[in-house]
Amino acid sequence: MNTTTTRGSLLAALACLLVGGSFTANSLLGDYPYAGGQFLRYALAFLLLVPFAGPGAWARLRTLGAGGWARLALLAAVGMVGFNLAVLAAERTAEPAVPGVFVGCAPVVVAVVVPLLDGRRPQRIVFSGALFVAVGAFTVQGWGRTDAAGIAFSVCALAGEVGFAVLAVPVLRPLGPRLLSTAVCGIAAVESALAGVLIDGAGWLRRPDAVETGALLWQAAVVTVVGFVCWYMGMQRIGAERATLFSGLIPVAAACTAPLVGTGSYGAAQAVGSALVCAGVAVGSGALPWRARRGRVPGGRQRASERSLERV
Question: Which keywords does this Swiss-Prot/TrEMBL entry list (predicted)?
Fold first, then answer.
């Protein structure tokens, strides 16, 4: 792995670990209006990100045109607001492991969809690594009680997770990670407010208590600001296919942090699943030495493409 790939992998891994740890914070927001909480999270993240959006931010946004803005709105609606709503809806009739298992299949879907959209064949080694990650995520979480509605909403959550990576690919180059994160957080805040009014009416927003305030601050400042920027910086360097492999670390991080608040345990199944996820990430990302030797010739063009995406 070269320096660019190593940095990209570390950034993607950090982002996914932060998101996985955020599930612990979510458990502290069970009584807070969902859409209102998302509004506060994304609005605060937007305000924190604005000073770091970079010079000429508005000029770069104007170059997107109507199509680019529509993509940003769809990215926020599907990959952020819609994803979270789908998980919430799924957990009404299904145990949390069910949407988790479906979301764990995102690396497999992205490993196929992104290359096809780019006019090339999926990379066998990335697809193989994605299968390891999906099996590992299933092993960590297991399977739980569900019904048809729970499965349907879990599929929607999977679509949201895939959309968060795939929809960002065309706008990541012109905007860069910081401005992209700033823009989608601002849009997601507006969309969350609209969803709150439609779903919860006048009670969509209230003053959070001390515990809820701490959880929302963590989600906004750490998970969203740091996590989103790191995620898109990582994706910029190693591509959407390889970056999404690291999403398998989300259930691993959730399983490791759940015992801290008494919402779960970490046992043999979680340990085996974590090992499978790490193996899949190592294989698919090219971290193993044998992968570098076997993939030197066919992988050269891909690495050149990855370097062309990097922005200093």
Answer: Cell membrane, Membrane, Transmembrane, Transmembrane helix
| Planar angle of CA 35, 265, 32, nearest 5 degrees | 15
Residues of the chain with pLDDT under 70: 1, 21-27, 96, 257-265, 287-312
Is residue 219 within 8 A of residue 48, CB to CB? The reply is no
Query: What token pair was written down for 84?
Result: 């979270």
Closest CA to 141 of 44, 224, 243, 20: 20
Contacts of 8 (CB under 8 A, 6+ apart): 233, 234, 235, 236, 237, 238, 242, 243, 306
Q: For residue range 154-195, list pLDDT tens digits in order.
A: 899 899 989 998 999 999 999 999 999 999 999 999 999 999
Two tokens at 304?
A: 């050149």
Asked if residues 216 and 94 have their Cβ atoms less than 8 Å apart, the reply is no
In angstroms, rounded to a whole number, what is the distance separating the alpha carbons of residues 126 and 141?
23
Structure tokens at 50: 């604005």
b/e per residue 149-167 (b: at least 16 CB within 10 A)? ebbebbebbbbbbbbbbbb
DSSP secondary-structure letter at 223?
A: I
In angstroms, how far is CA 92 from the centroid of its own chain? 22
